[in-house]
Design a protein that fits this description.
single chain; about 110 residues; mainly alpha; two-stranded antiparallel sheet; 4 helices; 2 strands; about 50% helix
Length: about 110
């Protein structure tokens, strides 16, 4: 599988619009990584990244998640990202629904 970059911290700060600082940009990455971990969708590389934590060079890539995790991110991550508002704790409901839908298609 070709490596896919789903998101990068630098795309939000300093390159993004309306994101005031690095700490604000990190919020949704911390939340989505915890969600991926809770749903057992992280690969060994993803678990290593969780141990290190999200820093200014962080990128969410296909190598960090399982096959099912890639299917969820490819199908729903961009839609979920449009729901994210900087400075708030984003809801994971749409990712939960997406995961259930993809699992039911198996």
């Amino acid at each position: 599988m070709k490596r896919v970059t789903y998101d990068k911290l630098s795309w939000h700060f300093p390159e993004g619009k309306d994101c005031p600082d690095l700490a604000t940009a990190r919020i949704h990455f911390d939340i989505v990584m915890s969600w991926l971990e809770d749903k057992n969708l992280l690969s060994p590389e993803g678990h290593e990244v969780m141990e290190i934590g999200v820093d200014s060079d962080f990128a969410l890539t296909s190598e960090m998640v399982t096959d099912l995790g890639n299917r969820v991110l490819a199908s729903c991550y961009n839609d979920w990202l449009r729901e994210v508002e900087y400075g708030t704790s984003p809801s994971l409901d749409s990712l939960d629904v997406c995961l259930l839908r993809i699992e039911s298609e198996r």
